[in-house]
């Protein structure tokens, strides 16, 4: 069931950095009262929202099922905003990920203490966070954020939960091939002219944004329920045009998407397969941008120098927004590198299935998927109690 209104009102909001006078915010939700006292440092679950990296904020697609389960066992739940593309790129998003985790580890406790002193009469729940026990969670494109945190952030997270995450295999036609037929959740193809301001080169003139709320046309509209915020359809538009990677990298000339497309459609290429595709396409990624592609940073065999935390991957087999093969591919790479990884494929489920009306009934029963995912985090965070 969703978290209670009281639980959500207990949140505290902090600015973890400013970029050109724009605050980047995170929401801190305390552990349930009685599960983590002021004398203890609470483990932390840091959540990255989805939205194709183009839309959303710290409240978008909020995973109530996970918040409720993790705070109930003594975890602090933190939801983070990050800059969105365009005009920002994966490099700016990576900077935000690193800065957010650094803030949580190094600055949050003193700010929590200051706020308690400043609002002594507000009876704020006293707690501190343990910088050595941080797990990261991401849904959809937030999964990519979680993977980047595992590779580049300090402190490194000690566990990852990814719900149908992007970033397990981004060198596929899903990202670089133009689409001429319906491909995304049965929805119509988009007219690029309606999004001219968000297309290169015009998108370079956009203002930096890290908070882009979900909005829909009202019931009185000719298109009731249709997205009213154009950013809600940008990721789909970029996938449709086969240029998503150019916007992600922030580089359009030369276009990596075009280079990948040309190589992939060459009559001389090897028969398709993960290994042959990787050999063909991986060298085309510019060396200075390879750090944005998690799959390219995982060694081909066990290595003492490679650090990647235990990982729990969940993906619906019918996902058309981010293919389940991405999580399959990442799981295979991580296992080969000696990482503890669990992959749960949910038969017949589409993207965002955990937000569906039947989700709690289908997956929220005792010992079900939701409990298993939260229990994975609890185990690696050393959280008391059980999910």
UniProtKB/TrEMBL annotation:
Entry's Gene Ontology BP terms: proteolysis
Pfam families reported for this sequence: Abhydrolase_3, Peptidase_S9
Keywords recorded for this protein, A-Z: Hydrolase
Residue ranges occupied by any Alpha/beta hydrolase fold-3 domain in the UniProt entry: 45-165
Domain of life: Eukaryota
Residue ranges of domain Peptidase S9 prolyl oligopeptidase catalytic in the record: 307-358
Gene3D superfamilies noted in UniProt: alpha/beta hydrolase
Keyword Hydrolase: yes
Xref: PANTHER family: AB HYDROLASE SUPERFAMILY PROTEIN C4A8.06C, ALPHA_BETA HYDROLASE FOLD-3 DOMAIN-CONTAINING PROTEIN
UniProt-recorded name of the protein: Alpha/beta hydrolase fold-3 domain-containing protein
Phylogenetic placement of the source organism: Eukaryota, Fungi, Dikarya, Basidiomycota, Agaricomycotina
